[in-house]
Amino acid sequence: MKDLPERLRHPEKAHRPAQETARKPGWIRVSRAESAEYGETRRILKANALSTVCEEAACPNRGECWSNRHATMMIMGETCTRGCSFCNVATGKPDALDAFEPGRVAQAVAKLGLNHVVITSVDRDDLDDGGAGHFARTIRALRHQNPRTTIEVLVPDFLHKGTAWTEVVDAAPDVFNHNLECVPRLYPSVRPGARYYQSLRLLDDAKRRNPQSFTKSGLMVGLGETFEELRQVMDDMRVAGVDFITVGQYLQPTPQHHKVDRFVPPEEFRRIADMARSKGFLTVSATPMTRSSFHAGADFARLQAARRAQTPAMETPNA
To answer: Which of 63, 61, 59 is nearest to 37 (CA)?
Structure first.
């Protein structure tokens, strides 16, 4: 009996012409260190049958994060219903939801001893609610088992899912994150299944529904955007009430993925960060290696401190 052919990870990209993969400049540092803590993090994740965006999206910071016992859990399976040209997560028909997954996520977070956890997911356009209910159940399981752990969710756009997103917001995560990813002009080639103004509206609606929750969004650069386009997206984010912006260099996962237009040098990232701060974001992370959940715990502490600094001290009434 012949072996069955291996399932294609990216069937939608199989017939795309290979793009030349540019040589990375010296300021791009991919962490490959595998310490004892790295191995322990991997063991805990595997023991609880959990997926991570660290692995599935081939994150260049995995070595550093896992060595610090930090991992971004990716719920609702390893298969996405969309095929964005920048993303390394597998595309296809996902499996049914695992009702026990929220509990396993909570157990893994307890074992890892995380003070702050980031939960993300694949897109689940096949579900009536886009997976909003599963996110909410995961948040509740985390709160029950890890009451002192702060929770950040990095959610899909819930396109054509009505008000399903409210279930996630009402579960009260500490940070509600949805990445715009790129400037609107590039959506047809980078995020063909998404809509810029749907993503922007989701962030705006989440902030209006729960003003106490921090909202966060991220961008990739090096895809062909202009500085003025970045400026406009930042303005759009601020109008939507986004508190925290992350900006990092796009890295091409395979020759079939979207080509890197250019590697943005560190001094340009400093200019981008300065511009973002001038717009009034509470917190900014803009470096070549910045990723949405990289150093998320430390960034959350900075968010809290920035909000406290903006809140006028209550005067003590005279006795």
So the answer is: 63
